[in-house]
Amino acid sequence: MEKVLQGIRQKRFVVFGRAGMDMFAEPVGVKSEHAETFRADLGGSSANICAGLVKLGARAALVTSVSDDAVGRFCLNRLAHYGVDTRHVRAVGGEARTSLAIYESTMEDFQNVIYRNGAADFQVTEADVDAVDYAAYGALITAGTVFAADPSRSSTFRAFDHARKAGLPVIFDIDYRPYTWPSPEVASAVLTRAAEESDMIVGNDEEFGFMAGGFDRGLDKARALAAEGRVVIYKMGHQGAITLAGGEEIRTGIFPVTAVKPNGAGDSFLAGLLAGLAEGREMREAVLRGSACAAIVVSRPGCAPAMPTTEALETFLANHPGPTEPEGGPHAHSAL
What we know:
Blueprint: H1 2-8, E1 12-16, E2 20-26, E3 37-43, H2 45-55, E4 59-67, H3 70-81, E5 85-92, E6 99-103, E7 112-115, H4 126-130, E8 139-143, H5 152-165, E9 170-173, H6 184-196, E10 200-204, H7 205-212, H8 218-227, E11 231-235, E12 241-245, E13 248-252, H9 265-278, H10 283-298, H11 310-319
Parallel strand pairs: 1-4, 1-8, 2-6, 4-5, 8-9, 9-10, 10-11
Antiparallel strand pairs: 2-3, 6-7, 11-12, 12-13
Helix pairs in contact: 2-9, 7-8, 9-10
């Protein structure tokens, strides 16, 4: 675990995965099909993580591809707006397109329509990952979506090799999205390999259950991965989380809020967790700060724009009566 913490404390992260455009209906409560106004901003799990980290005082560089068009340039501009290093974001031509998500700020029958045919972020090549100076960073982060197709799948595994040679811990957010994969069987095999090659794994109960071949075996899977020396965060929605690290199991609760949407919570959780560890905080406190960040994001419209700054996080923690006491069972549906 010490290797993981030493890398994180450098506060310099290289992040692999997608950036996309989000369009969300305004005002809060309006369904997409009835909206006359949509707001556009940065989205995509890895881009969100980058924005969240930078807002919390860390540095983050994104490694991805975007389409060589107005939407791709929009994402580049928004990444720069949030202070994310874009030197390793490459524009690709042809029919590749940057992902687009259209959603709303209402929990009632929440809709998120995602366009990912010919996704540009799957075009990350071995040359792209070879061009990264891994010694300039303290840790590598990836979201599981990069493994859904080649060439980004093989290229990211190659980046894992580079990271290990440079002494960087690998942090893996499982982030399983069935619609991006050719089959559940392929997804299970590839995500399991990625987990086994990582030093820290973050996922919810459904994702660990998926890798284990059954929802009721998810916690056993998480424990098996942790027993081999990894840090594992097992998220359980309203029941909180179980952190498995250094032979301990740390159970933590959540910060209840009035949510306006479910998406973006996991990205913000990871950013808050890592930023907390980067500041030298104990694991329990860092996990709770991640949970607070998730609560903040689901209570605001958008994803990247909803990520809290350090000041906003401290204000939230000072004014919120939480967290809840952690619950004992491992089988709640997870929104994180």
